[in-house]
What does this fold into?
Amino acid sequence: MKRRSFLKQGTLAGAGFMILKSGLLARGNSPNEKLNIAVIGCGGRGGSNLNDVQGENIVALCDINSKTLAETAARFPKARTYADWRKCLEQQDIDAVVCSTTDHTHAFVANWAMNRGKHVYCEKPIAISVQEARILRETFAKNKDKIATQMGTQIHASDNYRRMVELIRGGAIGTVNSAHVWCSRVPTGGSYLAEVTPIPAHINWDLWLGPSTHHPYNPEYFNGGCLGWNRFWDFGAGQIGDMGSHMMDMAAYLLDLKSPTTCEAQGTPVSTDTCPEWLTATWEHPANDWRPAIKVQWYDGGKKPGMPSPIFSRDNAFKGIIVYGDKGILYGDYDFRVVMPKGDMTQYKAPKKEDLIPESPGHHNEWINACKTDKKTSCNFEYSGTLVENNMLALAAYRAGKKLEWDSTNMKAANCPEADQHLHRNYRDGWKLNG
It folds into this structure.
């Protein structure tokens, strides 16, 4: 696709944008009419997300921590309160749901809400298995003409991401051939935690566990936020699930990545309890209409690619993306970008002002606007579901110990049937994802 036509019409579509219609709040109503929002998960990221949507009608609040719930309810006295999100979703006047629960319940809350015609904003990652991500994509596809969805990768809305897309797809580094993405955060391993008694009266531990295998109560699972739980297989997906949702978003957006054809991964010895303390992964992605087939590599837990130049070493290169092309290199992160050309860059023509990718009104506002009108979101569940599915495939390859030849259509590793067991999760009796 030519650069000008891409910037005018292709960028947003390539990033998974779709026309969305509203649900209970009728399409065509004034954008000033307020949504009725249920906030499920009120502490931590939940509190931050709540602050970003508080201009709408907050009609329901849900949290397994009764103290957090009471503190939040004091700010929104008209909202009904719940401990169980399943009961919350029965409230008839809800238009939209903001899900900020722990990672292992994201897919459940989001899928149940979509099945009930609710718009959904869900924290990242929206799923912690390949199968969960696929089911969310399929449910969204069935409902995309009436609901708006968004995964909480807020930095996707930044102008810096847009400028990097323009540079890459405008030819600033020529034809791209590989990309390296990393986050050097080092999680701890270990085993599921020992029981601590008694369970505090304000914590509903059974609801916190939700669909996951039963484990005895220990406050360290959620002390310290997501780093407390996301290292355990039953509750999270390690750093590729957590920071990978942000960092690999850059690769997906810049390079218009869809489903890979192969995936292989290495890490610390496989544990039955915890995700790897470090992980490296390589995906092969097929060519599209503006670039050839490409390899994308991921590094976490202190692993990182070699820096192509000392000038790229920023804050010891804790995280970022490097994209290699035949005429240069781009190094970027949330808030900066550097291009190192191999020549004089005469092949690159900077876009005119009218050809720049339009700025976002803000990640939450994108979603709110899409709930009410036919406007678009940048990280709907087709785009973000594909991103998370790609990331979760790396964990399946790591656990299988083999390079997977990936048949995305049938969700199978053609050369490795033993990988099937790592594509899904086992749930406790009484819990079903497609509820």
Summary: The first helix runs from residue 3 to 14. The chain is about 30% helix and 20% strand. The domain at 18-155 is CATH 3.40.50.720 (Rossmann fold).
